[in-house]
Write a structure and sequence with these properties.
The protein has helices spanning 2-18, 21-30, 35-46, 49-59, 64-75, 156-163, 167-187, 190-193, 196-208, 211-219, 224-232, 241-259, 261-291, 297-360, 369-378, and strands at 84-89, 101-104, 107-118, 121-130, 138-143, 149-151. The chain has 379 residues and is α+β, with helices and mostly antiparallel strands. Helix 3 (35-46) runs antiparallel to helix 14, helix 11 (224-232) packs antiparallel against helix 12 (241-259) and helix 11 packs parallel to helix 14.
C-alpha cells in the first residue's frame, strides 16, 4: 500500500508539470463553457451570424470600427458579452494588429492586445463582440491587416475542458491505470516474489534437515515464496505432509487473490472507460440536437458539426485510457501467472525435501514404491 501511494503521488506530480501553466491560467480567467452541451447551446444562439459574417469578410466594407458596429447592430440582443480569451498560435501573425476582427465558430472577436507576434507564432487577446460560442482552433479574418487564417494552439487542457463533465471520471481512471500498472510492474518481479537467493538458501537448509533455519529465512524475506515457506514449516513436527500441503494451499489461494486485485482493477478500467466516453458522447449529442431545434436552416450544419466534434472528445478520451489498460492487463496477468507457476514448482520440490526430513526423523512412513518412482520421474 505504501508503494502504491508513493507511485500515485509521483504520477500526479508528472501530470501537473505536463500541463501548460500559462494556458491553464488563461482558460480559468476566461471561464470557458465546458462540454458539448454548452457548445451546442451557444452555437444555437449565435447561428444567425453564419449568414452575415461571410458577406462582411468578402466585401471588407468600411473600416474595422464600422464593421464592428455593423456586427453588433445586426446581432442585437445576441451581441457578444465582451469576454476576453488568451490565444496562442504557431501561425504567422507578424501582420496582426490591435483592432483586427476575426470569425471563429460563427462568432466575431476583436483583437484587443498582442503579447508577442512573429512569423513563427505568438500570443494575443481576443474579445468576443458578437455571438456566444467559445473559440475553437480556426480563426478567419473579417476585417483588418492580420493574416487571413490563424490556427490556434490547442493543449491537452483545452481538449479536456471541451470534453465536459464526463472527462473527470475518465481522468481518474487514467491516473489509476498508470498507478496500478507501475505498481504491478514493481511488485510482480521474480526478485521480489521468488528470489533465487532465498530459494537456494531454503533448498540447502532442507537438504541438511534444518527446519529452524528455513523458518528464520522465511521470516526475514517478503514475497509469495517466503509466505509459502512460513506456512510450510509452521508446526512442522506435529503436522503430516498432507496437513502441510493443505495448509499451504488454503493460505496461498487468499494471498494470490490479493495479489491479483490490481490486475483485475486494470480489466475493470479497460471496460469502464470507453463506456464512460460513450455515455458522455450520447449525452452531448442529445443536447446538440435540442440546441439545433430552434436554429435556422443556414446555421444547423455548423452548429451540428461543432457539437458533434465536442461530444466525441469523451469517446476519444475513453478509448485512450481503455486501449493501454487492456494491454497492461493482459501483460501483467501473464506475468502474475508465470510467477505463481514458478512458485508452485519450487513448492513441489520443497515438499519432496520435507518428506525426506520427515522420514529421516521417523515422523512419516516410507512411501510406496510407485510414489517413489513418480517423484524420481518428476525430479
Amino acid at each position: 500500500m505504501k508503494r502504491l501511494l508513493v507511485t500515485g503521488a509521483a504520477v500526479l506530480a508528472v501530470a501537473i508539470m505536463a500541463v501548460d501553466p500559462a494556458q491553464g491560467q488563461a482558460q480559468l480567467a476566461a471561464k470557458p463553457a465546458a462540454g458539448a452541451g454548452a457548445a451546442a447551446k451557444d452555437a444555437a444562439v449565435a447561428a444567425p451570424l453564419d449568414d452575415f459574417l461571410p458577406s462582411v469578410a468578402k466585401d471588407e466594407m468600411g473600416s474595422k470600427e464600422e464593421v464592428e458596429e455593423m456586427l453588433r447592430g445586426d446581432m442585437g440582443e445576441r451581441a457578444g458579452d465582451l469576454k476576453k480569451f488568451e490565444i496562442k498560435t504557431d501561425s504567422d501573425i507578424a501582420a496582426l494588429e490591435v483592432g483586427d476582427l476575426y470569425k471563429n465558430e460563427e462568432t466575431a472577436y476583436k483583437i484587443t492586445a498582442i503579447r508577442r507576434k512573429s512569423a513563427k507564432g505568438g500570443e494575443f487577446t481576443a474579445q468576443r463582440i458578437a455571438g456566444q460560442n467559445e473559440p475553437m482552433r480556426r480563426w478567419i479574418r473579417i476585417s483588418g491587416a492580420g493574416p487571413q487564417n490563424i490556427i490556434a494552439r490547442m493543449t491537452l487542457l483545452d481538449f479536456y475542458l471541451q470534453g465536459g463533465s464526463f472527462m473527470h471520471p475518465i481522468l481518474v481512471l487514467f491516473v489509476a491505470m498508470i498507478v496500478l500498472s507501475v505498481n504491478d510492474m514493481l511488485v510482480y518481479r521474480r526478485s521480489i516474489q521468488c528470489p533465487p537467493e532465498f530459494v537456494g538458501a531454503v533448498d540447502a537448509a532442507l537438504v541438511q534437515g534444518d527446519i529452524r533455519k528455513v523458518e528464520e529465512l522465511s521470516k526475514g524475506t517478503k514475497g509469495l515464496m517466503a509466505f509459502i515457506c512460513r506456512h510450510m514449516v509452521h508446526d512442522f513436527d506435529s503436522s503430516t505432509l498432507s496437513d502441510i500441503r493443505s495448509r499451504v494451499e488454503a493460505s496461498t489461494v487468499a494471498y494470490v487473490n490479493r495479489m491479483r486485485i490490481p490486475v483485475r482493477a486494470l480489466n475493470l478500467i479497460s471496460v469502464a472507460s470507453p463506456l464512460l466516453g460513450l455515455m458522455g458522447t450520447i449525452t452531448g449529442m442529445v443536447i446538440v440536437f435540442e440546441g439545433i431545434a430552434g436554429t435556422s436552416n443556414a446555421g444547423k450544419a455548423s452548429v451540428l458539426a461543432a457539437g458533434i466534434r465536442t461530444a466525441l472528445f469523451t469517446t476519444i478520451a475513453g478509448l485512450t485510457v481503455a486501449i493501454p489498460a487492456l494491454f497492461a492487463y493482459f501483460g501483467l496477468n501473464q506475468k502474475h501467472g508465470s510467477l505463481v507457476s514458478e512458485c508452485e514448482t519450487v513448492f513441489d520440490r520443497f515438499m519432496y525435501l520435507l518428506a525426506q526430513v520427515k522420514r529421516s526423523r521417523g515422523q512419516e512412513p516410507e512411501e510406496p514404491a510407485e510414489g517413489k518412482r513418480r517423484k524420481t520421474v518428476q525430479d
